[in-house]
Design goal:
heterodimer; A: alpha/beta; 5-stranded mixed β-sheet; 38% helix; B: alpha+beta; 4-stranded mixed β-sheet; 7 helices; 4 strands; 49% helix
């Protein structure tokens, strides 16, 4: 069967599905949807449907990115638009099936928005909502819309037509098309993709490899996971196109073992591709052969670095080596190798389908196209987002993200994971592109974007990242192995209140050495969290070192909890909740925290009823409290 | 164990390049890499025990002691960290009377910290066996552990 026949069939099947006389239900069942309870809701819905005797088509879809509203369920009744409902619970699902499917009340009060054509009174269009309106969805276009395990749904929505087009071009023309798009590597460093491919294509040798880097190791980033779960074929299509352009006949996908669902979807996707002749021998009858092997990572952050990743695929310790020779000349098993990130590969599929010029219309002058980010941390609307490069940080955090959680003050946004930096409020109006982020001391990275509010301590964050990079440093080169440890020790000392005045100068000096002297990207970027926080938040370091005070009230050795005697009603709630029995008191007796026993977990502050608000958290100040429980004097109940 | 490991190795391909997948499958089968299992793998691949252990010990995934029946993993990724993951870990440690990396005396629970599950939007996150629990609080964590204690 030719690809044209396959496509016609897939499109007919898709149209039939769209006009199906049965209602359709879409379950957001990516890893995060499942963590939020999607499986249980799926079970409830199936049970309710059979109870009412309704036949419906249930489709499990990937992540649409509205993580804050998970779990999500969409319902499309025949002849009606598709309505998306958020914050689902089994109880709400029972109600919704009854109200909408049985009684035809679309429950506008429970709906988030309408997806696609059509309208229903009282329900906005989903893509007009502030969270989605500023976004431009190219890579994520199909995530949350199609059944990720159904190759026909992918094909009916433009899938593999980029490959079909590429195979009719010469490899040089394919590279030229990618060059026109201006695509740069989405893994973080931003190297022009076409140039990278060209090096590898021109490298001498008959045997060449391509690799998809899906070792998304940055804590706080899940863009690649969502894409692999929600639309695995787009990544695979990009890989086949790249292999053709470069002249590789074998590819590897290096995916972290922590992503079981992504791995499962990839395996299923490859099996379906084989059936359709989209992978293996003589792809689409073009005479081009290509096969893919999946390699599961075994948990090492440094394996995101390309030479380490290749060592790991070869079954060795994942340690980097010096370059040159670059992988394009001598990579996996000593052969020319080209590595790109998950998102880069998926972008390639779109570029070949829509054309390089079309893609290049999005984004800014130097940074073309769109980029996915995982917007998380202290932000109202956490989620997976895709925006054109060049958009201002402010528009992302306040527009798409809806601002800081609970209306608190914005402090910093962290991009680029352990290799990136913390950018302060004064940077909110700078655009998100490779050059601006590097100038600010951070990096684009693979797309983690973590918002921090006034209750986040930046010294603690620097310590957190150094703890991470120090543990993940492979130990091969001295600046990284010893330098990260030294920086961590200084930061631990500072957060414990034992910092010395010279520590701040020492930190900057060691950071500069590690940055310059390390062998690979891990060490070269590991000081960034320290350098950026020193640059933008020096006064917080000084408060820790000179005043032994944590202004954000985070560092446990520098804070204390007290029960305010004039507010405590002696109710005993905190006393019972304290995990270490550090609170003394009795009925109608003012409670007292034993500062020696207290582990500063904050449970008492969380459980103290808001009407009393008797627990306070302080740093660097003394609160006058009685030494032992005394009778409550206030008139409160 | 010899035959079982031979079977696993044959599945992955008996070659040096397949070392990591073989170790992954052996650990999946036995829960950890015992000295005996490492010797078997090195014999099959004709490399030294040292080389196998050297590779295995490089990667966080591999463990060399018997795990607990239920594996509790508390995420300390960045998003979880800023939303209080460390406090969750502290309390689970107190609840189970073990430190991270440890196993309870009755081998019912093993506790680990992990760097990121990629479910950051639901931070803080805890994973027990293969179930992911999001938006953790100290008391929710305690209830969840209790559920597995009975199971």
């Amino acid at each position: 069967m030719s690809f044209e026949d396959i496509r016609r069939e897939a499109e007919a099947e898709w149209r039939a599905l769209q006009s199906s006389p049965k209602p359709r239900i879409f379950l957001g069942a990516g890893t995060c949807g499942r963590a939020a309870g999607a499986d249980e809701i799926g079970k409830t819905i199936r049970k309710e449907l059979s109870r009412h005797g309704i036949e419906a088509i249930i489709t499990e879809v990937g992540c649409i990115g509205l993580c804050y509203a998970e779990p999500l369920v969409d319902i499309k009744k025949p002849g009606k638009p598709r309505i998306c409902y958020g914050d689902m619970t089994p109880e709400k699902a029972v109600q919704l099936i009854e109200d909408y499917l049985v009684k035809d009340n679309p429950r506008a009060d429970m709906a988030l928005g309408i997806i696609g054509e059509g309208s229903v009174d009282g329900i906005p269009s989903l893509f007009e909502l502030p969270v989605l309106k500023p976004q431009v969805r190219i890579v994520l276009r199909r995530c949350g819309f199609i059944d990720a395990e159904d190759i026909n749904q992918y094909i009916a929505n433009g899938g593999y037509s980029g490959l079909s087009r590429a195979l009719k071009m010469t490899p040089e023309q394919v590279i030229q098309e990618v060059r026109k798009s201006g695509l740069r590597g989405r893994g973080g460093a931003g190297f022009p993709t076409a140039q990278k491919w060209d090096f590898c294509r021109k490298a001498p040798g008959d045997e060449k490899y391509i690799i998809c880097n899906a070792d998304e190791g940055d804590p706080g980033a899940f863009m690649n996971r969502s894409l692999l779960e929600g639309d695995p074929h787009s990544v695979l299509e990009g890989m086949v196109i790249g292999a053709y352009a470069i002249g590789a006949d074998h590819g590897y996908i290096y995916c972290r073992a922590e992503y079981p669902l992504a791995l499962e979807r990839l395996r299923k996707a490859i099996a379906r591709m084989e059936q359709y002749g989209l992978i293996g021998k003589n792809i689409m009858g073009s005479g081009f052969d290509f096969q893919v092997t999946i390699k599961e990572g075994a948990g090492a952050f440094v394996c995101g670095e390309e030479t380490s990743l290749m060592a790991s695929i070869e079954g060795r310790r994942g340690m980097p080596r010096s370059r040159p020779p670059f992988p394009a000349i001598s990579g996996l098993w000593g052969k020319p190798t080209n590595i790109n990130n998950v998102e880069t590969w998926a972008d390639v599929a779109t570029i070949l389908r829509e054309g390089g010029e079309w893609y290049g219309k999005h984004g800014s002058e130097q940074s073309k196209g769109t980029k996915t980010f995982s917007l998380v941390g202290k932000v109202e609307r956490t989620g997976l987002i895709e925006v054109p490069l060049g958009m201002k940080l402010r528009d992302i955090i306040y527009g798409v993200g809806g601002g800081v959680l609970g209306g608190k003050a914005f402090k910093a946004v962290q991009t680029g994971g352990p290799s990136g930096g913390c950018l302060p409020a004064s940077m909110l109006d700078s655009p998100i592109d490779y050059e601006s982020l590097t100038a600010a001391g951070s990096i684009m990275g693979s797309g983690g974007m973590i918002v921090m509010d006034e209750n986040t301590c930046v010294v603690d964050i620097a310590r957190y990242f150094l703890n991470f990079t120090q543990a993940e440093s492979c130990g091969k080169c001295v600046p990284c192995r010893v330098g990260t440890r030294q920086m961590l020790q200084i930061l631990e000392r500072i957060t414990r209140g034992q910092g010395m005045p010279e520590d701040i100068g020492d930190l900057s000096r060691i950071a500069a050495t590690v940055k310059q002297g390390s062998l690979c990207g891990l060490g070269q970027t590991a000081p960034n969290p320290v350098l950026t926080t020193l640059r933008y938040f020096l006064s917080e370091y000084e408060a820790h070192v000179l005043e032994k005070r944590c202004p954000a009230l985070v560092c446990k050795d520098l804070i204390a909890f007290y029960v305010l005697p004039d507010k405590c009603s002696g109710c005993g709630i905190c006393l019972r909740a304290c995990p270490v029995e550090a609170i003394a008191g009795g009925k109608r007796m003012v409670h007292v925290i034993d500062q020696q026993k207290c582990v500063r977990c904050g449970t008492c502050l969380d459980v103290c009823p808001a009407k009393f608000a008797a627990v306070t958290k302080v740093s660097g100040e003394k609160v006058e409290v009685p030494g032992e429980p005394v009778p409550v004097t206030s008139k409160k109940a | 164990m010899r035959e079982e490991i031979e079977r696993i190795a044959a599945e992955c391909g008996v070659e040096r390049g397949a070392l990591i997948p073989i170790l992954q499958k052996v650990q999946e089968r036995y829960g950890y890499l015992s000295p005996g299992a490492i010797s078997e793998v090195s014999r099959l691949l004709r490399v030294s025990d040292n080389e196998v252990f050297g590779v295995a010990s490089f990667y966080a995934q591999f463990r060399f002691t018997r795990p607990g029946k239920h594996s509790v993993k508390v995420c300390l990724g960045t998003a979880c960290h800023v939303r209080g993951g460390a406090t969750i870990l502290d309390n689970v440690e107190r609840d189970l009377h073990i430190r991270e990396g440890g196993v309870t005396e009755d081998y019912q629970f093993g506790l680990e910290r992990v760097a990121c599950f990629g479910s950051c939007a639901l931070a803080p996150v805890m994973v027990v066996n293969k179930d992911v629990y999001g938006r953790m609080t100290v008391s929710k964590a305690k209830d969840i552990i209790g559920k597995y204690r009975k199971a």
